[in-house]
Structure prediction request, 451 residues.
Amino acid sequence: MTIERAPEAHQRSSAYVPSGLRRLSLAMLATERTGEHFKGLPETGATTPSRMLAAFKAAAPALGYGPRVVHAIDWLFSFTQPQDWTAESRPVVWPSAALQRDALGLGITQAKALNRYLVELGLVVMRDSPNGKRYGKRDKAGRIVEAYGFDLAPLAARLAEFQSVAHQARQEREAMRRLRRRATIARKALQQILETVTELGLSDEAWQRLADEVGILSRALSKVEMLDEMEIGVASLERRQREARERLESATNPAPTEVPEAVDSDPKGPENRPHYYTYKAPFNPQEDTVIASERSKSGVEASPHPVSQAPRMRQEEPTKRPVRTDSGTVMKLTTDELVKLAPRLKPYLRNAAPGWPDIVEAADWLRHDLGVSKPLWGEACLAMGREVAAVALAIVSAKPPEHFTASPGGYFYGMVSRAKAGTLNLSRTVWGLRNGKAGGQNREGGRATRQ
Prediction:
């Protein structure tokens, strides 16, 4: 009878244990072998239980451990003492089953399943007493003399693993952060290009398709969690940005017309030559004027054809520019100092040590947030120069909202107008920012409407 029922008894071994002891599993045996390597916490690195617990928590998400597992280990750690983690001791805790159920909000079956799961994960070893109960004793110095319950030694034995996994997880998070930032920059740049296309009336089916693709890709990237998928998506977004910029530039910059072949302007010889003068700007026009004056005083007859003076006047006209009133590069302002004075530039910078081209590019993106249109930005670059225009825009971004009577865009328009008139002085405003006095009365003289 017994022999015939033996196979059935073997099938019921997972629920029926004749000895009354905990059923051993391969995972439990592996965890016990891991705990045997415990020789106390290392003398360098995470030398305290709290630091070891922090390393475990940092690695838990990457290892797939859920909040309930982390909470259970954190609760068991609260029963340990520093001397339990030395080579002469053993980190065993013995909270009662009732206390564990109440603290973790579990039922009897759930608590048993959780304990077995902790063992199978290789985090704890169950040290059972002869009567199956958890208890322990400490001497007067607080050292454990006898204990039965949860042995946390496997956690200490896996400390190097936790630290390595946590470090890799931090690197992946940092890489993901950089990728998300690149995606934001590319998306805003594409929005800027599409707005310019609309303003110039260049929108067509291809541009609309690009706008739809950018919207779909941006929404998809906001939900991506895998690093390799994020890299592919960001590369695709940046590629669309480059192609859109090239297409816009080709649409707004027509191809140069071909230069016609030279025509013989003297087909009949010198005696019948037409009155045609070719003017070449002298290296020093002032010296040429002095020579002409001296020749007139010596009696040399002036040329009866003063036509050559007209091109000279046309040549000199473009050189008349408003006199600069700022001190060179605006009080010798460096890029690092400008970013500190105008922190709204920082999210748009591509590297931590930007040069002036990087500042100009970041300002071109920042101007959208301030309501500065692309044509106005172009006028500012022509009137001030690209670098000084970027400094002026950064100054606008550093002012509080209540400083503007109309809008930041209107304020910047006033600065551009004064730059064209040659009356803009950014030096005093920069000094005001340096001294923390950027608010209130405008340092360039007057409120925004008076720029």
About this structure: The chain has three domains: 21-157, 170-250, 335-450. The chain is about 55% helix and 5% strand.
